[in-house]
């Protein structure tokens, strides 16, 4: 069975969307472990409620060694794919080399807009509204050494209205995130994704 690790920092609605799609049979995967960089993340409760093994690696305790600890755990567990879903720590080092094109991230904008350093959560939607864009959305991409720079797997769009608040836009985008992330996981689990430099080729059924 294809094994995934989901890395979170907060509420974990994306984690919940993966849990739901595993339960419904859409995803033929096992969530082997949920790793949080915060003990307070509500996503840990979501995992426990669903009998998924979950641990918190506090940033204070691991500091610069957080990525190495994640690598140790995912190797021990035989994880095939790492999914960062609202995970706010930066991953680096050997983990990125050993899991090249096996770590995916979800970002709440249409990359390369409103991404990079400081662009997370509501900040992203505030920036999109202030700029006055008429469309935003979400992006699932492979993780590389940069921030939000890896090859793009899936993007989904939503309209942006002049009257929008960041909270309203966030809600609209999250609905798309909850479709896009399981879709990307399924494509990878079914071996339908091939990466050539920046381009991601997806096999049609
Ligand atoms: C999601 O909107 C995700 O795209 C975003 O954090 C939120 C986490 O929500 N990630 C980033 O901004 C990363 N740059 P969740 O905990 O409910 O899944």
TrEMBL record:
Highest taxon above the source species: Bacteria
One cellular component (GO) term of this entry: cytosol
Domain Formyl transferase N-terminal: 3-185
Listed pathway(s): Purine metabolism; IMP biosynthesis via de novo pathway; N(2)-formyl-N(1)-(5-phospho-D-ribosyl)glycinamide from N(1)-(5-phospho-D-ribosyl)glycinamide (10-formyl THF route): step 1/1
SUPFAM superfamilies: Formyltransferase
Active-site residue numbers: 107 (proton donor)
Entry binding sites for (6R)-10-formyltetrahydrofolate: 65, 105
GO biological process, one term: 'de novo' IMP biosynthetic process
Entries under InterPro entries matching the protein: Formyl_transf_N, Formyl_transf_N_sf, GART
Keyword Oxidoreductase: no
Positions contributing to N(1)-(5-phospho-beta-D-ribosyl)glycinamide binding: 12-14
One Gene Ontology MF term: phosphoribosylglycinamide formyltransferase activity
E.C. code: 2.1.2.2
Catalysed conversion reaction: N(1)-(5-phospho-beta-D-ribosyl)glycinamide + (6R)-10-formyltetrahydrofolate = N(2)-formyl-N(1)-(5-phospho-beta-D-ribosyl)glycinamide + (6S)-5,6,7,8-tetrahydrofolate + H(+)
Keyword Transferase on entry: yes
Site (Raises pKa of active site His) residue list: 148
Keywords assigned: Purine biosynthesis, Transferase
Family (UniProt): Belongs to the GART family.
Function: Catalyzes the transfer of a formyl group from 10-formyltetrahydrofolate to 5-phospho-ribosyl-glycinamide (GAR), producing 5-phospho-ribosyl-N-formylglycinamide (FGAR) and tetrahydrofolate.
Protein name: Phosphoribosylglycinamide formyltransferase
Source organism: Clostridium pasteurianum BC1
Source species taxonomy: Bacteria, Bacillati, Bacillota, Clostridia, Eubacteriales
């Amino acid at each position: 069975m294809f094994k995934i690790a989901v890395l979170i920092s907060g509420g974990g609605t994306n984690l919940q969307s993966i849990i739901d799609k595993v339960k419904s049979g859409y995803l033929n995967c096992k969530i082997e472990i949920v790793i949080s960089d915060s003990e307070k993340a509500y996503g840990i409760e979501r995992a426990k409620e669903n009998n998924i093994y979950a641990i918190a690696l506090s940033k204070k305790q691991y500091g610069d060694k957080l990525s190495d600890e994640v690598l140790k755990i995912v190797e021990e567990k035989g994880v095939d794919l790492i999914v960062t879903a609202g995970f706010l720590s930066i991953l680096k080092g050997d983990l990125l080399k050993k899991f090249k094109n096996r770590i995916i991230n979800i970002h709440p904008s249409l990359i390369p807009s409103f991404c990079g350093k400081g662009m997370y959560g509501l900040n992203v939607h505030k920036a999109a509204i202030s700029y006055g864009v008429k469309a935003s959305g979400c992006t699932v991409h492979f993780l590389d050494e940069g921030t939000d720079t890896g090859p793009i797997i899936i993007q989904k769009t939503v309209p942006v209205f002049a009257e929008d608040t960041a909270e309203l836009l966030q809600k609209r985008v999250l609905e798309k995130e909850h479709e896009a992330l399981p879709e990307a996981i399924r494509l990878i689990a079914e071996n339908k994704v091939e990466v050539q430099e920046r381009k991601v080729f997806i096999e049609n059924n």
